[in-house]
Specification:
14 helices, single chain, 424 residues, five-stranded antiparallel sheet, 19% strand, alpha+beta, six-stranded mixed sheet, 41% helix
């Protein structure tokens, strides 16, 4: 048992605090596999909702991944428990061929995709999951072993966007033994997934190590407190990064960024790496690094003056020009093809530009500029253009049905079109 305090789930005030982010929603979903943790989530959500004058509608989603013959019966059990609790429930199935490798990740993506689609049909916009304190401890240990920075070491957050599904984890403070006891007291028999004991999965190996670590004082409660402190440090660093970015980074209308080498050096590694990462994220079209080491190595190259003449990373091209770091979008296959800008609607182009058709006119199309001579570009804009060629080629141009240019980059030449560079 963890030495950390765990909430009293029999106290209505505690439930009100744990489930507070869901209280204002009109409808919430519960991801319930049939294991002890998710069954406990269903029992607690029902108990919490009963204390509210106006409670959200609750819909239970249970998914058969098609990987074990017992899964169909487990879903049937979940639907029966939900029915006994007076809750709506949906039976979902992941059908079709399964990959030979990366099965766990593929199953996770399929789960959120299928549940997300069902939620959209049901008018549900928040999904509750049963992740608990030991899940948090395992996550922190795995990320620590993989060399994660502060953002990773903060562990799972209570609210998160996962595969485009808004997820809420109300039980991160709770020990799994408490949840198992709750289910047993309710007379329910939870499903047992053998993959939860398969040492072929990294998370299971860390789970087996937790009791050994706890003997030395490194239990789930300590790791949860560590994650909370890392979250506080990460939030502080984020605020410092935002202030430095606003003061030191220049973004032009083509979506290119520039920052003086001296300013980046003066920030120091902790903030400098974060500012560089944010530049890459904005300019490169929101491509996430596969590992923190990618940005760390690039930062050291820039800091030490070893950056090659032209370096590409995460969809961006980086160059040092006149003691300034200049970052542009990388041309290539990742750019979107021509897309319609709907009447009285929006288009997010390349995850970088928000293009709005203010009018009710159809036929407006946005695409990459690709190639436009600088003299012609300067005729359009009315000033000398010094931004890199890559930035020009990868900036959006909006044309009407007759091919007339209505906007280029962040500049609009027609009142019916508005273009904004996305920086958040």
């Amino acid at each position: 048992m963890s030495t950390g305090l765990t909430p009293d789930l029999g106290d209505p005030a505690v439930l009100a605090r744990l489930f507070a982010p869901a209280a204002a929603r009109r409808a919430i979903g519960l991801a319930v596999s049939g294991g002890a943790d998710s069954l406990a989530l269903m029992l607690l959500a029902r108990r919490w909702a009963a204390t509210l004058t106006m409670s959200p509608r609750i819909v239970v989603y249970s998914l058969d991944h098609g990987l074990r013959p017992e899964a169909a019966d487990e879903v049937t059990m979940v639907l029966g428990v939900a029915r006994d609790l007076g809750l709506e429930a949906r039976n979902l199935v992941w059908s079709g061929p399964k990959p030979q490798s990366g099965l766990q990740e593929a199953a996770r993506q399929a789960r959120y995709s299928l549940i997300g689609d069902a939620m959209a049909k049901d008018g549900v916009d928040l999904l509750l999951t049963a992740h608990h304190r030991s899940d948090q401890a395992e996550t922190v240990l795995m990320r620590l072993a993989h060399g994660s920075g502060l953002e990773g070491l903060r562990g799972m957050t209570a609210l998160a966007l996962v595969e485009n599904v808004e997820v809420f984890r109300p039980l991160l403070e709770v020990e799994p033994a408490i949840l198992a006891a709750l289910v047993a007291d309710a007379g329910l028999t939870p499903a047992q997934d053998p993959s939860n004991d398969d040492p072929g999965y990294e998370r299971v190996r860390w789970r087996r190590l937790l009791p050994v670590l706890a003997e030395e004082g490194l239990d789930s409660g300590v790791l949860a407190r560590f994650a909370a402190r890392m979250a506080e440090a990460d939030n502080a660093m984020t605020k410092m990064t935002e202030a430095a970015f606003a003061e030191l980074v220049t973004l032009d209308g083509f979506g290119a960024a520039s920052l003086s080498h001296a300013s980046l050096e003066a920030l120091g590694p902790a903030i400098g790496r974060r500012v560089l990462s944010r530049i890459l994220n904005i300019v490169g079209g929101r491509q996430k690094p596969r590992a923190l080491g990618q940005v760390e190595r690039l930062y050291e190259q820039i800091r030490e003056g070893d950056l090659p003449r032209s370096t590409t990373l995460l969809g961006a091209v980086l160059r040092l020009r006149n003691n300034n770091l200049v970052v542009s979008r990388e041309p290539g296959r990742s750019l979107p093809s021509d897309e319609n800008v709907p009447p009285s609607g929006n288009l997010v182009w390349d995850q970088r530009f928000l293009i709005t058709n203010i009018s009710g006119v159809a036929g407006f199309v946005a695409g990459a500029t690709d190639f436009m001579p600088r003299h012609r570009l300067e005729d359009f804009l009315g000033f000398k253009v010094t931004t890199p060629a890559e930035a020009i080629r990868t900036t959006p141009v909006v044309r009407d049905a007759e091919g007339k240019v209505l906007a280029l980059g962040s500049w609009s030449f027609d009142d019916r079109i508005r273009v904004e560079l996305l920086i958040d």
